[in-house]
Design a protein that fits this description.
Strand content: 15-25%
CATH superfamily of the largest domain: Glycosidases
Strand order of the largest sheet: 21-20-19-18-17-14-13-22
Largest sheet: 8 strands, parallel
Radius of gyration: 25 Å
Number of domains: 2
Distance between the termini: 60 Å
Helix content: 25-40%
Shape: globular
Mean pLDDT: 95
Low-confidence stretches: none
CATH class of the largest domain: Alpha Beta
CATH architecture of the largest domain: Alpha-Beta Barrel
């Protein structure tokens, strides 16, 4: 059976202490996450096994630092590993990671540059689960070292392992460099310039807000939120320069006798006057397809419906001003991975170009639009009128506390930034959530510059997005960020200001989620803004 080969977006390493030795505590990482191994059923084993994941790229090396202080003399097993994925046709997909230039303080790390070889594999490193690949074959062939001549390569079923000796109270700092290995059939995307039509369009906007929980409902307004021209007037008066309008188009596209589709006139009767008024008020408009769950569940079955839907939407709006942008799809997820979305995007953009050759189109990577999926996105090389949108709700445990739809209804009292003045205690209903337990431990103990609930988490993601944008010549837009109303107002204000400042320092236009519902900027009862100072002063 042939291997299924994927482009990885994360590298993985493990730190394991033997039975009878105290677990490592207060493990700090400069990027990614460090959690007790969630797959271990025995709590004692789980606490002694730390699973570290951090983002990597195929086009540049990524550095990550791990810091911990052992409670007693002993050993720690360092395992360079790889990401796991759901099996395909009975086999786990193959995702290969390159490693180079590893170093350590507080312990001895042998052959961290992998220059010394032993029978073809790096000396001083064990390879217990599988044979090490040949230097002249993929994934090692044509690999370029960060330092020296050699690199190491691992995957989830073929780690490299070394045992480190540690001393009680002596802090250990591990610095590693990793890089994703591109699959053999990988096609390198074209790098565009920095002054494309898409760049110029994004440069015309800076601060926006989502009209959320309205037209993306199965029946517009059925979730209790309706928008009027008065909302648009308030949005413009506050200083926003664009809006994002989520629409569940799949509920409103109807077949016609000639085999084409048409947009339900009832939808347009409420939507179009507001869009026209927004454009008259000099607001740019992102028209977005939201919550198309059929497509994200079964892309192959609903691809044609999506493409023809956008062909219909594009034909209807072809004469509208250029300030109207088409955003293809909100938060691709589940079966609609970035790789699965790429050919669908290509076909959809071609359909749109039949009637809108110069319209700005906006596309999102998969996995809910996270930054880490940008490297997998493939847009038409010849089309420089396509921008990219990302979503960032980190730190998620803060922004989504109290949100029942993500299982955090009982999570309350997380303040921003961490650490809190009084240690936070998880409610009993969430204490079995290993990810939350790890977050809370780090939230309670780490200083602000390393705390998972602080600006450094957001900065790292936006820096990564900016670097990708500069490298490939695709402008990036932050299409959603925000904090649920369960959080305290002062923390929400600090968080919003941090995201705003980070975006504007990097030239990334942003669109707040959302105008007047659970995350809302506007208080509809008091008819006034909640966060003007955070976003405009």
């Amino acid at each position: 059976m042939a291997d299924s080969i994927r482009l990885p977006s994360d590298a993985r390493l493990w730190l394991k202490v033997p039975a009878g030795q105290a677990p490592l505590r207060e493990i700090g990482v400069s990027a990614g996450t460090a959690t007790p191994a969630p797959w271990e059923k025995d709590p004692a084993v789980r606490e002694r096994h730390t699973d570290i994941l951090f983002p990597i790229r195929w086009w540049s090396w990524s550095e990550m630092t791990v810091r911990f202080t052992p409670a007693q003399d002993g050993t720690v097993e360092l395992s360079l590993n790889g990401p796991w994925a759901a099996p395909e046709n009975g086999a786990m997909p193959r995702e290969e990671i390159l490693w180079d230039n590893l170093s350590a303080e507080g312990t001895e790390l042998r052959n961290g540059g992998f220059e010394t070889r032993d029978g073809g594999r790096p000396a001083e490193w064990g390879s217990p689960w599988g044979s090490y690949p040949a230097a002249d074959a993929w994934p090692l062939a044509d690999s370029e070292a960060l330092v020296g001549r050699h690199v190491a390569v691992t995957r989830c079923e073929r780690p490299l392992v070394q045992t480190l000796n540690v001393k009680a109270g002596r802090t250990v700092v591990l610095r590693v460099h990793a890089k994703a290995v591109a699959p053999p059939d990988f096609v390198v995307p074209k790098r565009l310039g920095q002054d494309t039509p898409a760049h110029r369009a994004m440069a015309a906007i800076k601060r926006g807000v989502n009209l959320g929980n309205g037209w993306e409902a199965p029946s517009p307004g059925s979730w209790g939120v309706r928008f009027t021209n008065e909302d648009i007037d308030h949005i413009a008066a506050e200083g926003f320069d664009h809006i994002r309008v989520p629409v569940a188009w799949h509920f409103h596209l109807k077949p016609t006798d000639d085999g084409r589709m048409r947009i339900d006139p009832a939808l347009l009767a409420g939507l179009e006057p507001l869009l026209r008024h927004a454009l008259e008020r000099k607001l740019h408009v992102f028209l977005d397809w939201h919550h198309f769950h059929d497509l994200t569940t079964d892309p192959a079955a609903h691809r044609a419906r999506f493409v023809s839907g956008w062909e219909t939407i594009a034909r209807h709006f072809q004469s509208w001003p250029p300030g109207l942008f088409f955003e293809l799809l909100n938060e691709p997820c589940d079966a609609l991975t970035t790789q699965a979305a790429n050919p669908i995007y290509q076909e959809t953009i071609a359909a749109i170009r039949k009637t809108n050759p110069t319209r700005i189109v906006v596309a999102s990577p998969g996995h809910w639009g996270i930054v880490g999926e940008l490297d997998k996105l493939r847009l038409p090389d010849s089309d420089d009128r396509v921008a990219v949108t990302i979503h960032c709700y980190e730190p998620f445990q803060f922004t989504h506390q109290g949100a029942g739809w993500v299982g955090l209804r009982d999570l309350r009292g997380i303040t921003y930034p961490g650490p809190p003045s009084t240690p936070f205690r998880l409610p009993d209903s969430l204490r079995e959530n290993q990810g939350l337990r790890s977050f809370v431990e780090r939230y309670n103990t780490l200083p602000q510059d390393a705390n998972p609930c602080s600006i450094h988490t957001i900065r790292r993601l936006l820096d990564s997005a900016r670097e990708w944008s500069l490298h490939f010549g695709r402008p990036v837009h932050l299409g959603e960020f925000g904090a649920h109303g369960t959080g305290d107002a002062a923390s929400r204000s600090r968080y919003l200001r941090d995201v705003r400042d980070l975006c504007e320092e990097r030239g990334i236009p942003w669109t707040l989620w959302e105008w007047k519902s659970g995350f809302g900027y506007w208080d509809p009862r008091e008819n006034r803004p909640r966060f003007r100072a955070s976003l405009f002063e």
